[in-house]
Amino acid sequence: ITGYGDSPSAEMVVTAQGRVAFLEHVLQELGMQRPVLISPSMSGRFALPFLLAQGDRLSGFVPIAPVGTKDYTAEQYQQVQTPTLILYGDRDTGLAPQALQNLQHLPEHRVVVLPGAGHACYLDKPEDFHRALLAFLRQLK
């Protein structure tokens, strides 16, 4: 099955390697140089393998309780030098604690917890989310 126009086949995204290649393709097509990758929830299946394989191509990484963090080791995370803002809502008691437990091994990270926000903290507390995101973006080189 293919998408509209030049979309890659769905088979491409079955493996972590394929998802890395897919994200590479998207960034290349958009002409993006060293973007900040924001990864809420299910997008972790794409963002995390990309971060570990090609984190040096990113200016920053913002995981928001992404899935798949337990698929990688502390040692793998420790190799990543990408500045990271670990962001989540304090009412996300499912995925957020597990993601934090794994992502805290990233050496260049900071954590922001949004009070009163759930899993989709950017929807629950958009002003707080944007404030934290903009502060992170401002301090990137």
TrEMBL record:
Domain of life assignment: Eukaryota
> What residue intervals traverse the membrane?
none
List the InterPro entries hit by this protein, alphabetically.
AB_hydrolase_1, AB_hydrolase_fold
Q: Which family does it belong to?
A: Belongs to the AB hydrolase superfamily. ABHD14 family.
Q: What is its main location?
A: cytoplasm
Q: Which Gene3D superfamilies match?
A: alpha/beta hydrolase
Q: Where in the cell is it found?
A: Cytoplasm
Q: What region holds the AB hydrolase-1 domain?
A: 71-126
Keyword vocabulary terms for this entry: Cytoplasm
Which protein are we looking at? ABHEA protein
Q: Which GO terms describe its cellular component?
A: cytoplasm
Organism encoding this protein: Formicarius rufipectus
